[in-house]
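Progress note, sequence design subtask.
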């Protein structure tokens, strides 16, 4: 993996296999919002089961890794904290899908790279001008995609704000996960993280009186599909590659979820996004191309749904 340095900012070019894994992960997370929009079950129920099932599927591999290399107290605490951020991310973002359009919700939750880059800059890291340009283009695209929706109604605005909060909370999940993944295997980290998120969401659901069972068969099948596509093929693969390609490359790659989710929302639920989505998505993809051509980064700056 070729690397170069720009001041204090270490850059790494993704390899072919890493880019292939990123493509699979982007397709997986792109299924999340459209499938969630089809589910009648409550948002906390969806969030609980996708994390609980994901944790259960990873449990055998995670147990083997943890037996071979037990987590230190610090590593375990960081995994728990990352799971807490993931739980809060889902609690904020999933309800937004039913309040605003899939395209707007997905675009706003994908602002994670903005928050992680600002965190890296605040930590004293120098950010190359081309990375700033790529991020600026991507965020301008987000503004174009969501600008019209913000003025549509109070309901849509509430959804936009929840999605934006979801993106901010995802930044904490990404930053902590990037640090932990340098020392802990993907399976061990994801197993503890997903389990923590499931437990916290279950507690929130109990406190709010939200049922976690009794759903229709169709909802169970959709929740299973969301778990396989978004949680296992999406989040888990992102956790696998974030330590090698860098959080900003992962975070910017996730912006491709915006056009992917918009297209799938049109196919699956007939939801047509505003006209400004088209130039907005062009800017988002252009920003992604600039960041990848710049090499990405190895400092914590960049996943989501």
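Output:
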């Amino acid at each position: 993996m070729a690397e170069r340095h720009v001041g204090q900012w270490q850059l790494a070019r993704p390899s072919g296999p890493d880019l292939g894994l990123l493509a699979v992960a982007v397709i997986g997370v792109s299924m999340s919002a459209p499938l969630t929009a089809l589910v009648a079950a409550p948002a906390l129920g969806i969030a609980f089961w996708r994390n609980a099932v994901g944790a259960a599927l990873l449990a055998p591999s995670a147990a083997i890794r943890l037996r071979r290399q037990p987590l230190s107290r610090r590593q375990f605490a960081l995994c728990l904290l990352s799971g807490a951020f993931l739980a809060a991310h889902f609690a904020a973002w999933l309800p937004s899908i039913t309040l605003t359009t899939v395209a707007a919700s997905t675009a706003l939750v994908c602002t994670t790279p903005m928050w992680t880059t600002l965190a890296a800059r605040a930590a004293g890291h120098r950010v190359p001008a081309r990375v700033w340009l790529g991020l600026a283009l991507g965020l301008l695209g987000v503004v174009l995609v969501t600008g019209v929706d913000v003025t549509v109604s109070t309901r849509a605005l509430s959804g936009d704000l929840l999605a934006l909060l979801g993106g901010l909370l995802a930044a904490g999940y990404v930053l902590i996960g990037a640090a932990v993944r340098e020392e802990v295997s993907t399976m061990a980290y994801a197993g503890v993280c997903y389990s923590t998120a499931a437990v916290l969401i279950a507690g929130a659901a109990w406190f709010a009186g939200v049922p976690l069972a009794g759903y229709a068969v169709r909802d169970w099948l959709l929740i299973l599909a969301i778990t396989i596509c978004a949680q296992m093929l999406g989040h888990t693969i992102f956790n696998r590659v974030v330590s090698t390609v860098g959080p900003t490359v992962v975070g910017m790659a996730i912006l491709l979820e915006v056009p992917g989710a918009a297209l799938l929302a049109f196919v699956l639920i007939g939801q047509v996004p505003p006209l400004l989505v088209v130039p907005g998505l062009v800017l988002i993809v252009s920003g992604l191309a600039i960041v990848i051509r710049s090499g990405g980064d190895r400092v914590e700056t960049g996943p989501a749904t």
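Residues 1-11, 295-304 have pLDDT under 50 and may be disordered. Work on this subtask will continue into the next period as scheduled.
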